[in-house]
Amino acid sequence: MLTVGLGANMIEPGLTGGRLDGIGVYTQALLRHLPRAGCQVAPYSWPRPLSGNAAADAISIGQPMPQSFEAASLVELVTPRVHRVHMPADLFHVTDYRVVRMDCPVVATLHDALPIKYPEWCSPRLRQLKNWLQRKAAQKADHVIALSHFAVDELVQCFGVDERRVSVVPCGVDDEWLQPPDAGEVAATLAALQLQPGYFLFVGTLQPRKNVERLLQAWLALPQAVRAERALVIVGAPGWRCEQLVARLRAAQADGENLVWLDRLTDGRQLRHVYAGAGVFVFPSLYEGFGIPIVEAFASGVPVVASNASSLPEVTQGAALEVDPLDAGALGEAMLLLSRDTALRARCAAAGRARAARLTWHETACSTAAVYHSVLNR
C-alpha cells in the first residue's frame, strides 16, 4: 500500500480556530477518502513558532513536523542544495502553499492565483510574502494538482508552472450527500435556526470576491411578497474587508427584512440540513478555483443560480442558471425565475443531481492516488 504524508495545516484546530475554508474541506476529504483509494495516509502539520503556550502550540491532528515552516524555510533558503526534510513516506502531498523540499517526491495542490491576479480582493497582510511562497511552492513541487482547467491556466500564467507537471482533479461531495437526509432531522434543524423552508441560500466566507453585497442588492430589489415568502439565508463567517457588508446586513435586519445571517454554523450535519431546506441556491462569486458549495447544492437537489465567471461554468456544465456576477439585475431576474417556475426548478434540480453524482470525494481520492502513482513511476 502506498504511504502518503498529507499536510494537515488547514484542518488543524490550533492553526485554524476550528473553522474550515474550502482548502480545509478539501484536505479533510482527502484524509477520509484516500484510504479507500489504496493509500495509507499520515497527516502532518507545521507547528507554530514556539509562543511559550504549550496548549496553543500543540498539534492535535496527526504528527507535528520537526520544526515550524518558517524555520524549515529559512534553513532551506540558506542551504538550498543540501537541505531536505526527512519524510518517512513514499510521497508527501501539500494542500496549501507550505512546500519545502523533502527526501521523497512532493505533490502540491495549488488552488488558484487570486492573490497575484486580484490583490484587491485579498488581505494585504503578508500578501507579498505569501505570493512569493506560492511561486516557490510551484517551483519546488515535483507535481501540481489543480482543481479545474481554469485554475491550470491561472497557475501557468501567474506562477510559471510547467503545464506538463499539472494534473486536474476536481473536488466533490461525500456519497451521503446524494441521498436525501432524514426529513425529521431537517425540520428540527430548521426550527432550531428559525428558518422557513424555501429560502434563497448562499454559503461562503464573507469577502470581496464572493460578491455577497451584489447578492443582497439583487434580493432587496425583488418584490416584497417574494422576500417575505423566501428569506435570504447567508451562511459564512466574516472574512477580510467585509465591514461594509456586515453593516448592510445588520441594517436590512433592523429594517425588518426577512434576512438571516448564520455566521457560526460549523456543524457539517446542520449545514447539510440547511442546504436541504433551501428553495434556490445562489452563488454569484467573482472568482473561484473550483466552488465546492455549488456541488453541495447540486447534491442536495437544490436548483442553482451561479456566476458565469472563472471556473464556475466548468463546474456547473449547464446544470445551473448562469448570470453575469456584475449585473445585479440579471442576478435578481434569475433568482425570481427559479423561485416561480416549477418546471424549470425541477429541470435544474435534476441536472444538478446528475452533475453531483459525477463529482464525489471518492472519485477525487481515486484520481489523486493515480497522480501519486504516476509521479512515483516516472
UniProtKB/TrEMBL annotation:
The keyword Ribonucleoprotein does not apply. SUPFAM superfamilies: UDP-Glycosyltransferase/glycogen phosphorylase. Keywords: Transferase. Residues 196-354 form the Glycosyl transferase family domain. InterPro entries: Glyco_trans_1, Glyco_trans_4-like_N. Transmembrane segments: none annotated. Residues 21-176 form the Glycosyltransferase subfamily 4-like N-terminal domain. This is Glycosyltransferase family 4 protein. It comes from Massilia solisilvae.
